[in-house]
What does this fold into?
Amino acid sequence: MNGMSRRGLFTAGGGLLLAGCDQLASPGKLKSIVQSAEMASLRWQRLVGRDALAPEFSAADLSPVFKVNGTREPMEAEYQQHKAENFANWQLAITGLVDNPMRLGLDELRRMPARTQITRHDCVEGWSAIGQWTGVPLGLLLKAAAMKTNARYVVFRCADNYGGEVAKGGAQSKSIYYESIDLIDAFHPQTILAHSMNGAPLSVGHGAPVRMRIERQLGYKQAKYVMGIDVVASLAGYGSGKGGYWEDRGYEWYAGI
Ligand SMILES: Nc1nc2c(c(=O)[nH]1)N[C@H]1C(S)=C(S)[C@@H](COP(=O)(O)O)O[C@H]1N2
Ligand SMILES: [Mo]
It folds into this structure.
C-alpha cells in the first residue's frame, strides 16, 4: 500500500467508511455487474433485503458464557509463534484483485475507525450466544485496498488446520479453515474484522488476533484466526472450491439468517 492511501486510511477513515459503497457504484464496477449473469441474483438479493441490519442488543443481554466452538487454539507453529509474541509481529495480508495490497499489524488495526455491535451468534449445532464485538469495518479496508472491477468474493484464510473435534467424530483429514462472502456482505455495515469481544482483546478461543463478524450469517461463516484476506473473482482455488471449510463438507455457502 502506498504512503498516501495508508495515511488516508488513518486520518480520513471515517470519510472512507461513509463512502464505502463508492467502489460498488463506480462506473467500471457497475458495468461489470450489469454485464454479468449475477445481475439478476444481485437484484433479487436486494429485494429480499440483504442489506438489512441484524438485530442489535444491549449490554444487559450479553450471554454470561459464550461457547468456544470449532478450533479452540491453532497448534500450527506459525500461530504459536505469533501467540508467544502477543501478536506483535503478526500482520494481516490483504491481497488478490486490489490495486493497493496491504499488510496491517494488530496495533494499526486497533487504531482504525471501529464499529461496536452486540449481536446474536447462531451456530448450526443449535446453540446461540449474544456477544459484543468491536472491529474495523471490512468495507473500509476494501475501499483502501481499491478492489479491481473483476472482484467478486472476499476469502478469509485462517491459521488453523481443522479436522473436526474428536468428540464429534472428527480429526480425520485436516485442512485449512477458510470462508468467503460476496461483496454485498463484504460492504454490509455490520461486517467487521473484530479485534475485541465484550470490551477486551479477543481471546485465543474466540479467534485472536482477529476474527470476522458477518452478522447476517450463521456461525461457521464467522472465521476466527484470520491471517489473510484475498479478493478474488472465483472461489475455485480454495479447498474443494465451494467457498469454505464447512461448505466443502456440504453446508450452504450462503448461510443467511
Ligand atoms: N478458523 C476457524 N473459524 C471458525 C471455526 C473454526 O473451527 N476455525 N468454527 C466456526 C464455527 S462452526 C462457529 S459456531 C464459530 C464459533 O466461534 P466461537 O468459538 O467464538 O464461539 O466459529 C466459526 N469460525
Ligand atoms: Mo458453528
